[in-house]
Amino acid sequence: MSSELPxxxxxxxxxxxxxxxxxxxxxxxxxxxxxxPVEAVGILIWGAFGWGEGIGYTLYYTTxxxxxxxxxxxxxxxxxxxxxxxxxxxxxxxxVALVALYLDFLPLPIIxxxxxxxxxxxxxxxxxxxxxxxxxxxSHVVITTIMFNFIASALMVYLLVNVMSAPGKMAPExxxxxxxxxLPFMYTAAGWFGIPMAKSPLNLTFIWALxxxxxxxxxxxRTRLGFEIRTNGINPAAAVYxxxxxxxxxxxxxxxxxxxxxxLAVNEILGVQHRLLLDFTAGxxxxxxxxxxxxxxxxxxILFSALLFGALYQGxxxxxxxxxxxxxxxxxxxxxxxxxxxxxxxxxxxxRLAAIYARLRSAPSAGEG
Length: 369
Description:
mainly alpha, ABC transporter involved in vitamin B12 uptake, BtuC, 16 helices
């Protein structure tokens, strides 16, 4: 039945309907606690897009979700569920911090290039181990990537407490990067060209996220490797018959996925925090799964989906401030409902839409008869 629907319906209409359903259920929840759902939505939208600083924060969150959404999507196209973006981003942060802390005598452009490379290398290396275990030993990548999230967290605690902690400080974090090893904020870069912009954590990593989105589109849909990845994801038996190696593709796809997840650290560590610290991943890796599913694992869809979740994060913070009855926990519930309808209930409306579409197509021919 799903194959009868046009692709634009599957890519655009179904996610939009699921989003509307999620907001309707969220509105009922808001109504139950005694608040006006329409007013709440207005505050949420204004908080995300109604003022300069809010837009900056929205795009800052969007940047993180683009990376984690792309990371999940690349693995998903190969038939893999990479649940380890959190751990891969953690290790990417370690790579970024090592460059910014110990190569800070280099010019900023060189530091940025090396930090991006280190984030990709460390993230890919952390994803390589679960990929190898599945490809060569049959260990399921979902289980191993989840386990590696905990290992990465424990490793980071050890390093920040015993090895990389700043001298004279009790906090589990590294020393701050020098000014010459910090990625400029977007408002700073805009100021170079005389363009006024509100201050926010948005930095030049956003541009890198857009470049990565285009790069993933080229990789998956315009290269031989991308064709092999998609073939393995759709029909592994056909891939083997065509002479492709599922083990090789598994390792490559997971390494690319881990590298993309590592780029989250470029935004957070090099662009905003300017030091290595605990919990900078803040659950972005798990939300990235919903971002990818809602965006149908296509870079363009992921961009819009990431923007939606960025707006929910920023607008939700403003909503909880303006309406104390709608707490941060309530905002998490709303985000969870969006994830529920975009993920677990993704195809709930598809059979009904397929039936309606079939009737509309058959109506003209029936009238002619």
